[in-house]
Amino acid sequence: MSSDQLSAEEPPSIENFMGTDIHDSVTVHRELTRNNAEVLARTFTDNIAELTEDHSQVYSEEEEEREKAASIIESKTSDLVPLERTRTTLFSPHLKSERKKIVLRFLWINFVIALFCFTVLPIFWGSLYDSTRYFHKVNYLAVIQDEPVNVRGVTVPAMGSFIPQIIAELPGTWHIYNTTTFQDKFGVNSAGEIDQKVIDEIFDEHYWLAINVKANATQTLVESFLVPPPLGQVFNSSNFFEVVYESAKDITSVPSSILAPVQALETYFKQIYNSRYLPGLFSQLPSNLSDYNPEALSYATSMSFHYFDYRPFTPRTLYGPLLGGCIYALTITIFQFLIFTPLHIKMAGLLSPKHIILYRLAIAWCCFFFLSLFYCTVSAIFQISFRGTFGRGKFMVYWMTTWLYMLAVGGANENVASIIFTFCPPYFGFWVVFFVIINMSTSFFSMALNNYFFRFGYMLPMHNALDLYRVILADLSRSHMGRNYGILVAWVVLNTALFPFIMKFVGATIRKRAAASKTSGATH
């Protein structure tokens, strides 16, 4: 067979290879398989439909039963009073855990308050305790210009000759000079210059108090007996025995403590003068006692010192700005922070960290500016004099000083309050009392009569502000004004420099708490 014939034929089918019978068998098998699959599918579908119908029927029956039960319960309980939370007695068994919490909290709070009382309050009491023990730090000046007198060949001792003996028994550190030694020490010549220099030494705060026995005291006493009137003059002891001090320098310590040794000196001097000095003087005079001028005798036996308050604490309204006012100014700065806190919290969510710091500082500084004006105006309303020192600008100096003081204490309060309110807001009151006490104890009472522990008060705002107020309102020495203003400015700078770091720390703490709270909420 040729190749052309082979190619023209059809390809061989399965019947050609397997035969016709086998092919029929395969076809039948395929038909049977297809029929079986269709039967199985229909059977499975019918079973599923039957199960679904059965389940739906069961579910509907259960739903009907539940509705019947609910209706029965509602009909049975419709007349019952619904349950409500009711109050009970403190000793109810249901409040056992709450009673335990109350007891523990009560013990903890009292422990904290007791700890505060035994650590902070003693600072104030300690500034007043056993002040006589520290009198060695108080410097006194004694100048005895009087000299002995020769009367008809008889030397009459000077009246102040026994004052050093009395001083030796008194507390305090005394600096005693006669005319010659005082002139050499301070470079003065005449008696008038000595008298003025004694006053200057007190004003310049080199000494707390001075006693000045002026020249010719004994001479005048003797002549009052020997020279008959009208040529003679009576002896007035207050013209020759002068005590110089400044009560405005320390209105709590000078009248009650600093003056006490000099008052004791006057008492002892009177006793010696009347019991020993005058009888001895009369025994040396040539005339009989009946020959003396009665008026001269009366004045001679009436010995008293003249107390010269060079800077008196007047009027009484000065107690306002120089005592309680400093505390009020401090507490006003706290009110400012508390009142503005809700607004600060709201603005913190709107402003960037840099601008929230600028905003807080601007609010505080501007607020203190006006608060200090209101505070100072109260003093003007009650007619405290703003003339004399600093001329017409005295009120402006007073106002700016108060503003600086409020910035110093207000900045400290705001920084500390920001931290306390972040961690333990209920304890903010402890800071307020602590800050007031450490300022009061080192400002209202003389450092000279305190333990050296209290010398930290020289760097506190209230002490320096009070020193400045005394200069402005009572015209005391200005020698320490530079130091006082410098310390207040240092407080303002320090508070302002710390404020951004505190805000950053507080903000980080709050964000950390918020993230922890969110994580805890997601876990639950």
List descriptors.
63% helix; 524 residues; 7 strands; alpha/beta; 18 helices; 2 domains; two-stranded antiparallel ribbon; single chain; elongated
Secondary-structure blueprint:
Elements: H1 3-8, H2 14-18, H3 20-77, H4 96-119, H5 121-126, E1 139-144, E2 149-151, E3 154-156, H6 163-167, E4 173-178, H7 179-186, H8 191-203, E5 209-213, H9 217-226, E6 241-245, H10 254-258, H11 260-284, H12 294-300, E7 306-309, H13 319-348, H14 353-381, H15 394-423, H16 428-441, H17 461-474, H18 481-523
Parallel strand pairs: 1-4, 1-5, 6-7
Antiparallel strand pairs: 2-3, 5-6
Notes on the protein architecture:
Keywords: Membrane, Transmembrane, Transmembrane helix. Residues 110-496 form the DUF3533 domain. Pfam families: DUF3533 (PF12051). This protein has 18 helices and seven strands. The protein is α/β, with parallel strands linked by helices. It has two domains: 127-309, no CATH class; 316-515, no CATH class. It has a five-stranded mixed β-sheet. The chain has a two-stranded antiparallel sheet with strand order 2-3. Mean pLDDT is 86; it is low at 1-23.
